[in-house]
Every structure is written in structure tokens, then in C-alpha cells.
Write a structure and sequence with these properties.
heterodimer, A: alpha+beta, two-stranded antiparallel ribbon, 2 strands, B: alpha/beta, OB fold (Dihydrolipoamide Acetyltransferase, E2P), Rossmann fold, 43% helix, rod-shaped
Chain lengths: 86, 398
Amino acid sequence: MSDVQDAAATAKNLSFEDALAELEAAVRQLEEGNLPLTEAIALYERGMGLAQQCSDLLDGAQLQVEQLTLVNGRQQRGFFFADEQA
Amino acid sequence: MKTWTVGSLTHYIQELLEFDPQLGDVWLSGELSNVSHSSAGHLYFTLKDATAAIRCVMWRSVVEKVTWAPAQGTAALAHGRISVYSVQGNYQLVVDQLQPIGLGDLYNQFERLREQLKAEGLFDDARKRLLPAFPKLLGIVTSPQAAALRDVLNVIGRRYPLVRIRLAPTLVQGTTAPPQIVAALQAVDADDEVDAILLVRGGGSLEELWAFNDEQVARAIAACRHPVVCGVGHETDFTIADFVADVRAPTPSAAAELAVPDQAELRQRVGLRARQIEQALRRRLSLARQATDQQRRALQRLSPQTQIEARRQQVDDLSQRAGRSLGHALALHHSQLAGWQARLAALSPLAVLERGYAIVRQQDTGAIVRQVEQVAPGDRLSVRVQDGEFGATVRSGA
């Protein structure tokens, strides 16, 4: 169980794109079927952690909008506020 | 000399024209004339300039999407393909898009700029860049007050809220708009982190959209280091910005949809991969189980336990056989011994003595007396009978 948590924990730092790419690579590798059993199990646990990370990222995401403004001739970044932003 | 029929020559011309790749994808600008609506809802017209005219037809399905009223004398930009109408021996442009390009000056400006930029290669397909599949940071160049921005943010928020949005605000109409659009494009494009840029504006009149036909805007789009998606106006509006952008979207919302993946699809994909990896592991485990079973059977065959049992049985078997053959040998020896004893017993002189015979010897020499002349009177003899010996003296000779 702790391995699963470790695998999930390290997947936590990955971006959605990286997590998905690694997940798909893991699927391909495991489907080839030539791995030693312990590596296959580790890869599976890693894959499940990656899938969880993908879901978590989507679940937790909230669109961030920032706005560039020109202050004294220099670009600055700030928060964007719109009256009717959904 | 070949003689054609009217039909075969028309068919030949038709194939020449309709299979020509250039004529299958035509942008044609000119002035509308002879505009007539048919009762079936199709629109017939001619596009002409100072030197020539081309017949055009627009089928009802396209006419229904046109949001303006094509009228005599309007300058227009049409897109379509050349086809041959064999019944009348005409060639015509079958139009699938038609938009006004303003009157007089605006039309000429548009046409001149379009030709010029096209000649420079700014519209070439080879220049078009692909959008990243999973953008992390999207620049948006538009007016912060406009409905177009709200639509774009709604679409992106629903489809892919993982992306960060950086808004570069600008005016999107009026004479001051083009330099602001250029500056906004340059401001978002300056950051390497930006994955793509959306240049959007909602629908409006030709004059209101005119900033997107500006040469400086077009060149700024072409100069962007990151791919640009242009979504200006409605589906039927075409601007120079559309031509030069990497991706042309019919509306601002469509630009948003093209720029980000859809999380509903992504969730399905992740779920599918999770099932696949689970199945792959299941297969791997059952493979391992099979291999283990096989090894166990092999091991059982080779195990010392099995060997010991096999040897024990062998020993048992051998000892039984040894026991059996030893018994046989002993019995044989016994019977042989008994035979020899019997023969020995039969040969023993004692057996003769039992029958009443006696053995006589010279007492001094021990020589057996077999004949009378061996003894003389007075000799001392020893007589052996069955149960012992006694002495005797010869009294008289023969």
C-alpha cells in the first residue's frame, strides 16, 4: 500500500500533459508483457498514481486569468476582474 | 481528324476544369452584378471587374447562412470552385462563402493588401504552425469588456481549466485599434512560456472589423513566435488576420475550442488507460502464475523428497530380492550339505562296524591286518569295534 502512495505522491508534481504521457507510456510498456513481475507491479502502481494525478488535476483546476497592463510604459501583470466572469 | 459530339467535348472541358486543383479552391473578389434569387432559394450573380465577368451560383444551403444582403454593385469576396454547367455550356463559380468587402477604398485596400501579403508568402500553408495539444499558458488579445472574451473564458473554463490565461487588453475597433492590437500581440508573444495566442473579436459590421484588415496587424501576427488562432466576427466574415493566422476559427468561441483540449475526452482517455494498465497487469500476473505452476511441477519432479522416496522403494525392492535369493542359496546349501553328510555317513567305516565288522591292526605299527600272513602267533593286535577298542594276542598262525 505504501508503494502505491509513494507512486501517487511522486506523480503529484507532474503536469497533466507529463502525467498523461507517462501513463500512456506505462500502458504500452506493460502491454508488451516482457517485464519482470516486480517491475510490472511497480509500473502498474505508478500508472494508477498517474491516472489519479490526471483526475486530481482536472478536479482541482480553476481557470486563472491574469491581465497585462501598461504602467508608466512598462508591462505589468495583475489579476483580471470581469463583471460577469462565470 | 476527330469529330467531337457536343456532349463529349463538354465532358472533356468539364474534366479539365473540375479536376484542376487551382480551380477547385478559388478566392475571387469582384463587384456583384446580375444578382437574382431563384424560386428554389439559390442565388445567381456575376462577379466582374473592369475587364471580365464570371458567373456564380450559390446553393440554398449556403445562401441561408449569409447574414447580409448581396446587392448589385457591392464589392465582395467569394470562395468556391469552378464547375461546368453543361446544359448551357457555361462555366461558373460554385460559391460556398461570400462576404462584402466594403465599398470603394476599403475594397481596394483589402484586395491590394491581400495580394501583396499573399505574394510575400504570408498566407502559405508551410508557415502554419500546429497548436500545442496541452497548452499551459494562453495569451488572449481582445477587448476586456467585450462579450467575445466572456465566451472564450467560458469555453476554456469548461473544457480545460488547467490552462492559465494571460489577457492583453486592446481596443478592437476604430483607428487607434491596430497599433494597440500590434502592441498587445507583441506583449504576450514576448514571453517564452506562452503556448499560443488567441486574437478574437465578436461580430460587427465591415467597418467595425476593419482593424483586422490592417497591414501592421497582419505583419504582427506573422511575426509572432507562437502560433496565433484568429477568431473574428461570424463564420461568414473573412479578414486579412484570418488569412495570416496559423489557425482560422469562425468565431471567438470556436477559437477557444481549437486552442484547448476537452476535459470530458481527457477524463475518458485517462479512465481507458487506467483500465488498460489494469488488464495488462492482470495478464502479466496470470502469466506469472502459469510459469510458477510449471516450475512447481518441474520442481516436484526434481525434489529430494521424490528422489528419496524413489530410492527408498528401490532399496526395499532390492533388499526383498536379496532376501529372497539368499534364502534360496541357503536352502540349496542345506540340501547339498545333507546330501554330502548322507554320503559321508554311508562311507564311514564306523557304519560298517555297526553291522558287526571289526578293524584289526598291529598294535605297534597300527597297520591294518587284511591277510592271515600279516600276523604271527604272539603278535599283539588292537581290535576296533563299533563302540571301542580292545587288545588281542594272536594264538596261532595259519
